[in-house]
Amino acid sequence: MSSWLVPEVIHGSRYDYKSEIFRNTSPQIPPEENSNDDITDFKLDPPSSPGNLKEPKEDLKLFKAAADEGVPDAQLSYAVELIKFSNGDSKSNELILHHLVQATSGRNETAMYKLGDIFYNGKLGVKENKEMGIELYKLAAMMNHPGAMEFLGFY
């Protein structure tokens, strides 16, 4: 389980946003309304902002849809949201790990850091593997992740 991450991380692309969810999110302002007077009143809240969604599980559905499209940031967000709703069973842990690995393959430095923490400390039912954890921390640090850099002593 140690050699499969690095080639996927190298060949992935973090900016490959193919998801339909992210294609048409910018607001369309008609030309006659396009004036600088009203621009300060406009505010676009992210889907997970407080008050924007009535139910937290709606976030989970949106992240899953984007994660299934291969969006690394959504894969990370979906894994993080799954942790909140997880009961700690092996099926939940496997799903969380799957999405973290996918986000890591898409060159998401935060996913690399979180996966490094899981391996280094033996979390989510994963057997402790300090060597793999440090390799993931190094990958995250090469992408300037502050937590990974601090862990490795670069600060």
UniProtKB/TrEMBL annotation:
<protein>
    <submittedName>
        <fullName>Uncharacterized protein</fullName>
    </submittedName>
</protein>
<dbReference type="Pfam" id="PF08238">
    <property type="entry name" value="Sel1"/>
</dbReference>
<dbReference type="InterPro" id="IPR006597">
    <property type="entry name" value="Sel1-like"/>
</dbReference>
<dbReference type="InterPro" id="IPR052945">
    <property type="entry name" value="Mitotic_Regulator"/>
</dbReference>
<feature type="region of interest" description="Disordered">
    <location>
        <begin position="21"/>
        <end position="54"/>
    </location>
</feature>
<dbReference type="GO" id="GO:0010972">
    <property type="term" value="P:negative regulation of G2/M transition of mitotic cell cycle"/>
</dbReference>
<dbReference type="InterPro" id="IPR011990">
    <property type="entry name" value="TPR-like_helical_dom_sf"/>
</dbReference>
<dbReference type="GO" id="GO:0032153">
    <property type="term" value="C:cell division site"/>
</dbReference>
